[in-house]
Amino acid sequence: MKAIYLDAALISELGHFAGSCRSVAAALRGAGIETAVCGHSRINPALAASVQALPLFTLHPNSAPVSDPVCGWLANFHHVAHVTAQDLGRLNGVQAGDLVIYNCARPAQIAAVVSWVQQSFSPDRLPRVVIILGWHPGMLVTSRNTAGDIVEWRLTDQASCLYRFAASMIQPAFAPAFRFAAADRPGSTGWSQLLGVPVVALPYFQTATTRRRNRKGTEAPCVAFLGEQRENKGYHLVPGIVARLLASNVPLRVLVQNSWSLMQTQNELLHKMAQENSRLTLRIGTASVEEWSQHLDASDFVVLPYDTGSYSTIISGIGAEAVANAIPQAVPKDTGLDLMMREYGSPGVVFSEVTESTVADAVLDGLVHFDDLADTAFEAAGAWATRNEPAVLARSLLSI
Predict the structure, then answer these.
(1) By CB distance 3.0 to 4.6 Å, which of 17, 181, 295, 322 could disulfide with 327?
(2) Terminal Cα-to-Cα distance of the chain (whole angstroms)
(3) Cβ contacts of 380 within 8 Å, gap of 6 or more
(4) Is the model's pTM score more than 0.90?
(5) What's the 3-state SS for 115-162?
(6) 355-391, pLDDT tens digit by residue?
(7) Residue 299 near residue 327, CB atoms below 8 Å
């Protein structure tokens, strides 16, 4: 048996795609499984070399060549699915019993994988196919029970109906080959509701990339805003939050890192603030693997002022990295991030609303009790390392 890891979004270090690939490929290879990796046709050569990836996919999952405002979402689904299925048809050597993993699938990629399997294999000679979901699902949870299970939800993006449609394309004779999964427990529950089929919760892909130190006793903790900043991640609020933090009497420093050059108004405001206050450090641009680890190691308190609707069923890779690296964090209440923190003893604080004042107040309150949070985060990181080590991930993927 061999494994084939596929991801059309695997093109650069931007985002979580490269990190996810490294985690899964390393876990499988560490378990002695021969693993091939295929990414976008224009994958960065350095990234391709580091993960041993071959170029394959013509279209990125976000490709939208049809701009029709009424039915473009549907036309793009059909076009991207068709092209991606053709790309998959160029794969050689996939045999019955092999493990095919498509990571970060959107509806078109699900449809493409289903079409490829059903056209290329017979029902009695099938590979095992694990489709991992990882984009925003376009759904909002409106009610949970006391155990955190979803009671009511609704779509916020009409195109998200295509997830269930694509999953329904699996013919009964081929159904034994397919399994759906998510790389976190909160996400698996939401995806199960959306697709109408079971979605397995895998171990988290993120592992510690720093010294995983206990930050207890830090005199002026560094409050950090990290990652690909955009509006649904609350970046439009960050200058105001930072201003409130720096105006407080609590000893602290602030690090703002934006992997994109987007939201220039906020970048410029923060740049001006950094020139006027040496306690604020601003980093704009995609970070290398080494630079990202340095950002995490420099952070003592990660703040995620994310939109509660967008993140009602999913986590953030940065939030997961914070737990893995023993960093306390602040997250919105009743979201996938909140549920993830609860799994690991609540190594942080939550805020009930995503506004400048509520987020800043939650952070300042957390800093008052920082030593306790640092101890909890350190314990959480130990539990994380045990539950999500590569060997556990490999066993989970091989046993689905």
Answers:
(1) 322
(2) 14
(3) 323, 326, 344, 345, 347
(4) yes
(5) HHHHHHCECCECCEEEEEECCCCCEEEEEECCCCCEEEEEECCHHHHH
(6) 999 999 999 999 999 999 999 999 999 999 999 999 9
(7) yes
Within 8 A by CB and 6+ apart from 155, the residues are 138, 139, 140, 161
pLDDT band at 31 (very low <50, low <70, confident <90, very high): very high
Name 303's bridge partners: 330
Residue 148 has pLDDT above 80, yes or no: no
d(CA 308, CA 228): 17
> What is the fold, at CATH topology level, of the domain defined by 222-386?
Rossmann fold (3.40.50)
Q: What is the CA radius of gyration of the chain?
A: 21
Residues 287, 259: contact at Cβ < 8 Å? yes
Task: Look at residue 11 and tell me whether its pLDDT is greater than 90.
Answer: yes
Partnered with residue 140 across adjacent β-strands are 154
Helices then strands (H, E): number in the chain?
A: 14, 15
| Rounded average pLDDT over 249-277 | 96
Burial-class residue 277 by CB neighbours within 10 Å (0-12, 13-18, 19+): middle
| CATH number for the domain formed by residue range(s) 2-202 | 3.40.50
Q: Closest Cα to residue 189, out of 399, 21, 340, 18?
A: 340
